[in-house]
Amino acid sequence: MSPTATIGLTGDLLVGGGAYRGTHGEIAAVDPRTGRELQPSYGLGGPEDVRRAAELAEAAFDTYRETTPAVRAGFLTAIADGLDALGDELIARVTAETGIPAARVTGELARTTNQLRLFADVVRDGGWLGARIDPALPERTPLPRPDIRRRLVPVGPVAVFSASNFPLAFSVAGGDTASALAAGAPVIVKAHSSHPGTSELVGRVIQRAVADHGLPEGVFSLLFGTGREVGIALVTDPRIKAVGFTGSRSGGLALVAAAQARPEPIPVYAEMSSVNPVIVLPAALRGRGAEIGRALVASMTVGQGQLCTSPGLVFAVDGPGVAEFVAAAAEALRAVPAAPMLSAGIQQAFAEGVERLRSATGVEIAAAGEAGDGIAAPGQAHLFRTTNAELRDNPALQEEVFGASSLIVTVNSADELRDTVAGLEGQLTLTLHADDADLEVARALLPLLERKAGRIVVNGWPTGVEVGHAMVHGGPFPATSDSRTTSVGTAAIERFLRPVAYQNLPAGLLPAGLDDGR
Amino acid sequence: MSPTATIGLTGDLLVGGGAYRGTHGEIAAVDPRTGRELQPSYGLGGPEDVRRAAELAEAAFDTYRETTPAVRAGFLTAIADGLDALGDELIARVTAETGIPAARVTGELARTTNQLRLFADVVRDGGWLGARIDPALPERTPLPRPDIRRRLVPVGPVAVFSASNFPLAFSVAGGDTASALAAGAPVIVKAHSSHPGTSELVGRVIQRAVADHGLPEGVFSLLFGTGREVGIALVTDPRIKAVGFTGSRSGGLALVAAAQARPEPIPVYAEMSSVNPVIVLPAALRGRGAEIGRALVASMTVGQGQLCTSPGLVFAVDGPGVAEFVAAAAEALRAVPAAPMLSAGIQQAFAEGVERLRSATGVEIAAAGEAGDGIAAPGQAHLFRTTNAELRDNPALQEEVFGASSLIVTVNSADELRDTVAGLEGQLTLTLHADDADLEVARALLPLLERKAGRIVVNGWPTGVEVGHAMVHGGPFPATSDSRTTSVGTAAIERFLRPVAYQNLPAGLLPAGLDDGR
């Protein structure tokens, strides 16, 4: 029996409070462990479904954005509670659709519900409102100053595109949705086609929370669709005022282009691609090269390397310890068991990326993990090695290979390292391994690292993104389409807000948060 | 004798600490009161000058951005002091180049230097740093939390395009420059060609302040150029990371397109066009129609209507008081003396805009001001009148006519008003005139106004933009290219900053503002 049978999945689009089957073709999830299709199939939406969801979102906006902090926080908490209540049924469906082991899904579910509750706290705290008051100065010369008060208001309905690799934390009730709902923006999610059942389960929890809290139905809709038809229709709908996206560079850039070509361009927050370079400095190599090598493999194989922050490029300054570093990494990697990747499509793209590196001039394989015979979509980990000179001649070696693949680059000197880092594209993260004797070199590199990445890690690993107040999951283009923001952590709410000033409003007109009384 | 002779204007480009004549043609300012050319002529820059300025800015960036708050605040204050010290010589040159009366220029100079000093306070205060610290939780289960700290860092060198209408407050040392320098970003200004002497005077003050404070010379450069060659070269230079612009919609959109087409797209903060609609509700009309009419004329003719916030569109709900409102406005307008506009080009565009309204179907002239015989570039104020039905049929009537022109639109009912406001483009400001009996209608309109404008004014006028903490001089497209920001007030600094997170940095590497000790 399919694990979904007990929880009544229907394969419907969830548009406002309703549910109905899309008529633009259908898809079914595939269990990547076995290659077998999962029930039910999902009817896909089209432009008319986007329009309907957008109309409802627009109609909901003015009511939803003025809900009290208590109501909105209660709503977010109810979504978290609903997901926790699904528990094992949800976890089983995620595992069936993505091959992610139940233990990891359990962690991701906790992260997702903690994130929703954290945004509930943010809403209650009220700092997100950005309230500023410049009181009137009627006696000022030469001219009196009027009373001016400012707050941030939500931009309007937001479109969210789910990611394949975090079916909970970056999907239907993930960070983009949580931060947009916290900001007071209705959300229309385009589900990722590789985990539609998970999406429906989560979507129904949100839909129920909307109803239970007496909110207008258009606060949330969930659409299924393949290709770019539904996505482009969403981004170009005039009622949509911002977009959150996590996925490929080509997908992100297509949405950015569509958003810019609108009569009224809108912001797109696309988190696209990053190889998360790791730099191992000489003293660290000398002192603990082998240890760093083993830790690299542990980081690059988390989630089969299918993380935005997976370390895909490692620079080691040539000298004592490099051989031990590479040998230990290679040894550790050879013992890595293959596991199913998220989908056959991702597995194929990974295999092509590995083949590109394998056949590149001057690149050698340091090690490969177990092959994974008998798994439908196995991800075989790969570790490659090259020199800085080769990397300079072939910038394509910098391109992300989504999966457990990493390229170790030996660099001749710290000076050469500096030039190489200066030539890198923008990244989500940059990591330094540095011992005390490396600190001077590290200090000199730091301003450059700040210009290239949204997060700098020292003596740790980029995988594992904390959901807190100080987190920046962002970075210069092409890591994201907007380096001024983060898609993880409480500051993510700022993406969906804009400031409005109110000049000389009588008390009866002043909006909540700016009136003297409350 | 030319007023410039005593203060040694040279007509040079100011590139870093140097000054030399551009070789791509030349321009001279023209006194719009007389049509006479002013000395000296200015040699125009080209792509090689942009490259040189950008190289210097890039070289200056890492040093400048880590200057202490005291140094940076002292630098901003020194610019303000230097401008104040120029005093009458500066004011005379501004008046000669723009026709703006000395009394107004005096006010604009005070606003400009106050703005620089306000940003010095902002820098000292440190809130702009956006510091957030999530301390390590080594005992947390299942995984310990690392130490994560965040701060905002400047995006990199910034290009600023001066405006014609505020030769001080929105020009070389205006709000864009002040906020970018406060953020720690080097600035390259493209001067506006209609006030090059003013630009050189201000530029030399900044150049001297850079030297006096021991800052790298590339912190500031000033370029002259016509057409779009220098502008596009600036926006597409890979070292430039953000753009501030105040000017026309076509000019702003061209810069946005160029910035988006870069290999690494960058943000453009373009403040472009707005007709700043004013809505007069029934009770206000009934009670004080004539008074509002006279006040409208006072607002629309400030600075000959050459303000971004000039009220160009007025909606009046038909009924008691409308006739008095229009009659009083017309009477006041007929008495408005003509004065020189900023330049012959602006005067010609104004005349064309007036002609477009005059010849539009269903639009009648309510009144015209004095013609201004004997002035080289006279701006003759115009008040037009039409109905909501005509406006609906001809959306071009909403387009900005830069200068003292305003169109009164009578609307049949508050419901009709709502639909009309919903159809407006994004605006810098929206203004309501409302008496007590109007408050219910006003309250119902407010959410719509918030979606259409960056600032909402009640029973006042949009002209007069306070430089404070709560000001929002921004608004939805096409008022600006980025509704999430303001170009006036202390929040303008946020445009030139982006967040960076630091994970587990040892004390010796933590940047200023995030270390525990300081």
TrEMBL record, chains A, B:
It is an enzyme of class 1 (oxidoreductase). SUPFAM superfamilies: ALDH-like. Pfam families: Aldedh. Its EC number is 1.2.1.26. It catalyses: 2,5-dioxopentanoate + NAD(+) + H2O = 2-oxoglutarate + NADH + 2 H(+); 2,5-dioxopentanoate + NADP(+) + H2O = 2-oxoglutarate + NADPH + 2 H(+). It comes from the Bacteria. Gene3D superfamilies: Aldehyde Dehydrogenase, Chain A, domain 1 (3.40.605.10), Aldehyde Dehydrogenase, Chain A, domain 2 (3.40.309.10). Keywords: Oxidoreductase. This is 2,5-dioxovalerate dehydrogenase. It comes from Acrocarpospora pleiomorpha.
